[in-house]
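Assemble and predict.
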Amino acid sequence: MNVAVCTYGAGNVRSVVAAFSRLGASAFVTANPTDVVGADLAVLPGVGSAASAMAGLGERGLDDALRERVAEGRATLGICLGLQLALDESEEDGGVAGLGILSGSARRLADGRVPRIGWAAVEPSGEAFYFAHSYAAETPAATARSEGLVAIAEAGSFLGVQFHPEKSGAAGGRFLAGCLSRV
Amino acid sequence: MPLPRLIPCLDVADGRVVKGVRFQRLRDVGDPVELGSAYSDAGADELVYLDVRATIDGRSALLALVSRIADELAIPFTVGGGVRSVADAEALLGAGADKVSVNSAALERPELVSELAARLGSQAVVVAVDATLGEVRSRAGSAPTGRRAVDWAREAEERGAGEILLTSIDADGTRDGYDLELTQAVSDAVSVPVIASGGAGSAAHVADALGVAQAALLASILHEDPTRFETLRSELRELGIPLRDAA
């Protein structure tokens, strides 16, 4: 199984590749839209801020590639900012249009210390995953929450997670194995 | 609020993990790849790697070593030491770090914090503050700056720091307990998470630190016997500190 991990700016995409490789998948980093459309699973990791990320995706044609995949019903995983980018819009950076794969928007966290950093339980399973974010999705597509915030959202073949499964130890490994098994 | 975090810290010099007392008399305590992997397996919530010679040597942290450690980890990994530019930070993220920690260069040129936050996002920017008697020191504790720790932490937050890693030089390596007064003052001054560092000698010390900070850095207490990490976790649970189930 091959997993295309989109790269479009500054950030750690290496750990996403490492996490899938540990599960026996053939994961690779790419900025090529054709690779992204054709892979068994495409991953949109979170990198930088919403505005720079959307610009980076657009420059490489990865925005259209991701929309095309999802329209074709092919498995696509958005991680952290990757979930937020899939929404209609984000209020980060003064307001940024997203990919429109998920309805809803990303809003600045209002409570507690921000960024919200650390391990927190995801309901309904109760397992803890690692979060590091200042914005959270508000979407009717939510399927799991953590402390009231959207932790997982799904629409068609797109699965978005606010937490970092690639950084969430054994629980994260099980989650990613589940993603591979759905392809 | 997320769970309190326990963060083993690898202070690295010349490719080896070292530990001193009050930043002096560094001694070799092990191999960073082996230690990092052991702590990750034992339930560490994150790992911090600080190249304590990088600034003094005028270079950034060693990318090949960072990658070797990163590839062993399935937990967040912060790397610091000698980061002077956005390019240095991008190189570390490219090598497998999730966050970069900046210290001396940010004190010399605070705009660096703003630049890093704009490019990488605040969640990837840790500002490390080393303080003695409430005053910030730079260059691995060797250079006075005349800044108050609370003031610098607040400025760092305003510039986009996502976390403050606060080390009490006075408590470092003593195992006499964290500097709770300093930690409380900085924690009150900012609204980003604070990582308390320096002085852990017992589970009770760590529990006290987690009462005022969101995370506790652990070094001397662990390195002579890395299996101490697992017993520390169970002792903290007995003290009522909620920790993640690492299984």
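Chain A has a mean pLDDT of 95.
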